[in-house]
Specification:
By secondary structure, the protein is mostly beta strands. The protein is built from no helices and 33 strands. The chain has one domain: YVTN repeat-like/Quinoprotein amine dehydrogenase (Methylamine Dehydrogenase, Chain H).
Amino acid sequence: MTTTTLARRALVPAVALVLGGCSGTGSVPTPSAGAGLQSSSVRSSTAGPFSKASPQTVKPTETVLYSFTGNPDGQYPDSTLVEDAAGNFYGTTEYGGINGNGSVFKLTPAGSGTYTESVLWSFSYYTDGGDPQGVIVDSSGALYGVTLDGAANDLGAVFKLTPGPSGYTESILHTFQGNNDGEYPSGTLAIDSAGDLYGTTMSGGLDTAGTVYELANSGSAYTYSQIYFFQSYPDGASPQAGLLLTSSGALIGSASSGGKNNDGAIFQLTPAGSGSYTERLLYSFNGPKKDLGNPYSAIVADASGNLYGSGYDGGAKYRGGVFKLTPSGGGYKESVLYSFTTSRKNGYYPQSSLLLDQSGNIYGTTPSGGIDNVGIIFELSPTGKKNYKETVLESFENQFGGGYPLGGLIQDATGALYGTASRGGSEGAGIVYKLTL
């Protein structure tokens, strides 16, 4: 179900890591920050240092930090930003760059709230792929990501960009072969303390329903292996987001379709020794009206081990919503926190990952709805034990203010939100924005 021509092929979640320990029976252990992964980049998925203690009294203000032009800087930014310790932002564009196949960009603070944009890499399609799906950054400044398609077999690749005196050097860590090897990698990668990388493919595997894979880092090379093949029923199919990596090494993710009712599922893969994993179905969605369906977002967790995400479809008005999975009796109990409506001001069909703050507020974007039907930024604030109130923080206007946000949000110490809009801006090629609350 869709209302625009911007059909999302693969979703770009925030970096799938969680700040703070999780405790209690059935809770999610604290995820590993991985091979020197910058703590500031973790803010792209969960609670940062900012905690909003009182209701808003000032209307949020959007500032365009950068407008893309297409060539050579990139076109249609559709990933969640990641930030390093120096305050630099990194992201990707679906198209544009020198070769028109997407780019990796960097925004460097230039003083007085301004930023300087630089293109770190332009993809060449048949050598390294096209349509990059976002990046993560480690303490050395190296960037890791995947391209959805292209490369030698036109099925996507995993890449690394290593900084050097004269720029960045690209290494292709894996080129997908199709079939059991997987094809069309989607979402951002997860990284553990050993520098091993984990990701998903939308298709391929034994039942062509997608895979979860690992790239083990020996220090001098990466070894690729498949962790899990999806079967569609009952475990899910077509994962389109990155993975939540816990401190115990478990991987939690979403499958956009399949499951017991073919409306998608939430799964967990737990290490079982000798490189094997045991799969557990945490929840299978029930679809329209009574429940949500088709989760395209990555999963994020709070300090109590509750899991959060969004469903693109379903809900009371069939426009998607936000859900929570609460540990209960050794399993999880699902609750729909909010169902989007067809109201002119409201958004709908959420796709990006969510952001949690320390007060329990939830932030996200939708690529549809709003005053001009080009998307919104929303906040869900808890008003009681089970109830949440939605506030539309920004309704995009598509022109200079951007439109169709497909990536998630990150937050700084003042509570300001940062993200990308895939369209709009001075050249219509998308923007990077800041929303001051």
